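Hey, I'm writing a tutorial for new members on how sequence and structure tokens pair up, and I'd like a real worked example in the thread rather than a made-up one. If someone can provide the structure for the chain below, I'll link this post from the tutorial.
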Amino acid sequence: MMKFSKSNSWTSEIEKVETGAEVESENTSLQEVEAVNEQKTLLYIDFRMLPLLALIYAFSLIDRINLGSARVAGMGPALQLQIGERYSIATCLYFIPYILLQIPGNALLRMTGVRNWITFIVIGWGAVQLGMGFVKHWGLLTLCRVLLGVFEAGFFPAMVFIISTWYKRHEVQKRLAAFYLMSITISGFSPILAYALSLLNGRRNIAGWSWIFIIEGAFTMFLGVLGFFLIPDFPDRNTFLSKAQTAFVLKRVEEDRGDSRPDDITVRKIFHHLGDWTLWVYGVMFACSTLPAYMLAFFIPIILKGMNYSTTASLLLSAPPYGPAFLSAMIFAWLSDKTKHRSGFIAIQACITLVGCCMTAFAKAGPTRYAGTFLINAGSAGCIPGVLALGANNVVSHSKRSVQTAITIAWGGIGGILASTVFREKDSPNYVPGLWVTIGAQILMICLAGITCLHFRRMNRLSREGRLSAPLEGKDGFFYTT
């Protein structure tokens, strides 16, 4: 059977600690591991890992969504994107390679090493982004968008995969939320940054919208180089913790879900994991949660301009809806981790998104419609880490976690395709049909959250009663998070 990863040459730190053996050249005893300060170690991991990953992902989002800002800044007339569905095609085709390359990207992650893989793809998409500043035809713009999808496909699932391996199951949503929300908060300033860069219009005979792509692409490439030196690896391969701290982290994960030791990713395992229907449900839920996020990213400057705001106001007013979303989503993430419950909080935030969509679609007053975008963003920003945490909590083994994160985030790309296609040019500037689809997606997500919650509760009950032929997820003492 073909394997995608190297065989594991590392010896279990946990086994060494439990027997009082030496860890490599250091005498790391069980007493030393137990003496590790848990809070200080976790805080150090948080600050060492999350801000850098969030900054790089923020520019992944900026590079993915700045098409709307560039269009308002003059790219539309320059490339004649107003003809037919050219703009929707350019936004949509990005997601085809983005979806198809999720699983291969995660399969290659351990084989190539986190640092090498992430550096390669970040510099790759930065170069494509920079090149978009020099296109003269909408077809070349579309080709660049496809290449952008090729390189960005491996980044987000890799980040979710890596982060979920460092923490216990009911610590992970706060971290995923912090990572994601720092990213979208930074990327929320994309319209303001785009406006500032557009003021370079005419410098070196380059249009303002071109400067948006050139400067943002160059900075992304710089982050790729920086990441080569600073991006953290999986816990068993990390180099920034002491041996005692590493053994402590692995011990916590082993006690929580029993997958601190990575298993090889094989084709047989991939197809076996693909047969678990719950992985596909997480994906559909993630698509429903990303649809409103992509809708705002691609179309909010255009929607605001349709409310008779000027070009400058449309770009500047696109940023504030991202602010309150950070606070709202972090509160829900904290509550979810504390109560060890996911589905109910996902449903509540989907309702918030639904209300915001109704306000933006059907209210008559411009300020009320604009207020709706705050609710849309708050709800969707909280649902995204919520769905990711639900999926991460209910799988065991690195191979299944790799497949689960890839499937989930690939479906997020389908949410992007929906946002690109249901918000049609002929429905401008209100895009009511697209908002109806977004409303329907939130209703579907609420239903799926209820179905998975009931299913997991039933499986937990059957396991406690000893009525199952095997432990849940093949791990004794494991119970699903509802």
